[in-house]
Amino acid sequence: MFKIGEFSKLTMISIKMLRHYDEIGLLAPETVDSFTGYRYYSARQLEAAGKIQALKSMGFGLATIREILAQYDDAESLRRYLAVRLSQMREESRDLGARLAILENTIERLGKDDNSMKYDVTLKEIPAMQVMSLRDTMPSYDREGDLWQRLYGETAGQHVQMASPAYAIAVFYDEGFKESDVDVEIRTAVTGSYHDTEHVRFKEVPAAKVASCVIRGSYASVSDACAAIGEWIDAGGWRISGPMFNIYHVSPAMDPNPENWVTEICFPVEK
Question: What are the residue ranges spanned by the domains of the chain?
Fold first, then answer.
C-alpha cells in the first residue's frame, strides 16, 4: 500500500488532484485509516491512474473519463469514445486554424500603411447565366468543399460543359450570419442542355446588380471586406436586395496555396 504522497509521486498526479478524484468518485483510495484519516492506495490502482492520465491527455473531461473507465475493458465501447473525441479534436483543429489565419492576417496588415486596410468596392452587373446548382444545409463554412464534390459527382455522367468564365458561386441564404447549419447554394455556369439529378438542378439565373469587393488570399479578411461593402452601400443610399454570394475566381480546389486565392464578395443592391 502507498501513502497518498507516495502514490502522487508514482503517478505524477498532485495530492490535491487525487483528493478531488476521490471526491467525485473517479479514483478512491483503496482504504482510509478510520483513526488518522490517511488515504492509502494499492499497486493495482497505478494502472487506473495511468488510464486517467492518458485519457486526460486526449482532452476528455473527468465526467467522461469516469464513464469510460467503467467500460474500459470493452474494446468496442472504448473505440466509440475515442472515435467521438477524434472527431471533436479535428473540428477544434479546424477552428484553431481559422483563428490562426485571422491573427496572422491582422498582424500582417498592421505592419503596412493605412491604405492596405481599405477595400475597393465597385458597382457592377453579374450577367444572366445558365447554371447547374446544388442547395443544401452544411454544418459549417469550411465544409463547402463537400457540396462541390457532390455537385460534380452527381453530374459526372453527363459530361457537363462549363461556360467561360465558369462563375463558381456560393449563395448564402440565411437571413443573418450563422456559425452552423448554413443554407448554401453552390452553382457554376454551364453551356448545353442537361437533366436534373437527385440534388442538382439546371436552371437560368437572372442578371444581378451588385456591390462587389475582391479579396486576395485566405478568407480571414472576408469580414472586413463585408464591412467595407456595408459602408459603401450606406454611403451611396443603396439597399441590399438579395442574398450575398461569393464568386471563386481562384479557389482552394484550383490552388491549395491560400496566398493565391481570389474571391469576389457580392451583395445584390437596388436604389
Answer: 2-73, 77-116, 118-270
| pLDDT 10s digits, 133-169 | 999 999 888 889 999 999 999 999 999 999 998 899 9
Q: What Å distances lie between residue 172 and 30, 119, 183, CA to CA?
A: 59, 21, 6
Give the integer Cα–Cα distance in Å for 198 and 135: 11
pLDDT tens profile 212-269: 999 998 888 888 899 889 989 988 889 999 999 999 999 988 898 988 999 999 999 9
Q: Under CATH, which number does the domain 118-270 receive?
A: 3.20.80.10
Give the confidence band of 111 by pLDDT, cuts at 50, 70, 90.
Answer: low
Spell out a b/e string for 56-93, using b for 16 or more CB atoms within 10 Å of the CB, else e: eeeebebeebbebbeebeeeeeeeebeeebeeeeeeee
Tally of CB atoms within 10 A around 226: 17
What are the tens digits of pLDDT across the range 1-30? 899 999 999 998 999 999 999 999 999 999
Q: Are 22 and 39 in contact (CB under 8 A)?
A: yes
Q: Contact at 8 Å (CB) between 187 and 131? A: yes
CA 85 – CA 70 distance, rounded (Å): 17
- Specify the CATH class of 2-73 in words: mainly alpha
| Separation of first and last alpha carbons in the chain | 82
